[in-house]
Design brief:
Length: 191
């Protein structure tokens, strides 16, 4: 049974990467996997749920890669800037992760994701990066009067600004994101 689930997920990942979420349908996935459409529903209740499982795995891989690429000897401002840059580059390079920013798909998937995951849906490298934030607080590099979990939500807010780049204006977005990050980090490092 795990082989069928793995086949569904592998072929879905391939199709989502090639065609996108919207243009991929369950019958294509199951045809590539060599099984009936009804078999799909033995493993996944919907295409959205399958996509979110694949998206979550891809996102976790990207976050681990980003963490490995950080130079933690630098200042918190530099580390957070590096992290945001690596994350943004990774998203742009991964067609599955890019789907998150496809406006026609985003609302439906994002709603499902947040309903199922609650606050964890906005966690930005929560586990590992939370430890870094707590270390910085102990070292006096960032403010200790703000709960470390709240600081993580501030970082999540920075990342989520990316979902509004169309409203902000693509020509303004990169500079604005840099400025917002700089201002937030200045406020967090003003110990």
């Amino acid at each position: 049974m795990e082989d069928k689930k793995t086949a569904i997920k592998d072929y879905a990942k391939e199709l989502f990467a090639q065609k996108g979420f919207k243009d991929t349908n369950i019958s294509e996935i199951t045809a590539k996997a060599g099984m009936a459409v009804g078999t799909f529903y033995n493993y996944y209740p919907s295409k959205e749920k399958l996509f979110m499982e694949i998206y979550s795995e891809e996102n976790a891989k990207l976050k681990r890669k980003c963490l490995r690429g950080l130079d933690l000897t630098q200042s918190p401002v530099s580390v957070v800037s590096q992290m945001l840059k690596l994350n943004s580059e990774g998203i742009r390079a991964n067609p599955i992760l890019r789907e998150w920013y496809n406006k026609s798909v985003f609302d439906k998937i994002e709603k499902l994701y947040r309903e199922e995951n609650g606050l964890s849906a906005v966690d930005f490298l929560y586990g590992s990066f939370l430890e870094i934030v707590e270390t910085w607080q102990k070292q006096g590099k960032i403010r200790g009067d703000i709960d470390s979990r709240r600081i993580m939500m501030i970082f999540a807010a920075i990342v989520n600004i990316d979902t509004h780049k169309d409203e902000i204006g693509l020509e303004n977005f990169p500079g604005l994101l840099e400025q917002i990050t700089e201002l937030i980090m200045k406020g967090l490092t003003d110990c």
